[in-house]
Amino acid sequence: MPTLLLRLAGPMQSWGTTSRFDQRDTGKEPSKSGVIGLLAAALGIDRETWNEDLQALAALAMGVRHDRPGVLKRDYQTAQRIISADRSKMHETAVTTRDYLADAVFLVGLEGLDRALLERAHAALQNPTWPLALGRKSYVPSESIWLEGGVAEEPLMSALSAHPWLTTLRHGEVMPERLLVSLESMDGNGALRMDQLLSSFADRRFGARYVRSAWVELNRGPNDASA
After folding, report:
1. Domain assignments of the chain as residue spans, ordered by start
2. Contacts from 163-170 at CB under 8 Å and sequence distance 24+?
């Protein structure tokens, strides 16, 4: 079964699934709704649309390899003269907190039977309809999300295991021997995530899925001097 691979790397990323009002959270890894939204933007599927392509993308099994987990940070913001959601009053000063991951790099895999759909999504990542972002519009990728040879003819776990490390060693850093992987669980085991897309993004209906953790050995390239 083929797997589409994406690189999510940037100075700031945010993948919240429980944000309410002026508190904006982030998960420790990309959410499925966030990744599907990114692909929808690449393919030109707007917020009002719930078509066959978007439904097929939402049905793909997702896995995330944590190449560089990043550091959880909090951005403190204030804004003045904000109209309340029900438009009943004006807040003279609003205080908001926005969590994000700093300096994170993830390899995301999406597995499905429809290779043609994965190929179209892969091509769209190289020439997207709309600008792509890492969870928030201002969080732009530092490297291309598109990966050369990004549609692998192998199952999700194998594709995540086989792909080379997406980042490089920093000063004083030790090469990791293995990498954490978060895999969508089909048997109901694992941590609950409420980020399974059930409608258009405008309608904002999300269902449950389960994610379990595993480890993969780091695939070191033949020219990797630190291997």
Report:
1. 3-69+102-217
2. 163/5, 163/65, 163/107, 163/219, 164/219, 164/220, 164/221, 165/67, 165/218, 165/219, 165/220, 166/7, 166/9, 166/67, 166/68, 166/105, 166/106, 166/107, 167/9, 167/67, 167/68, 167/105, 169/226
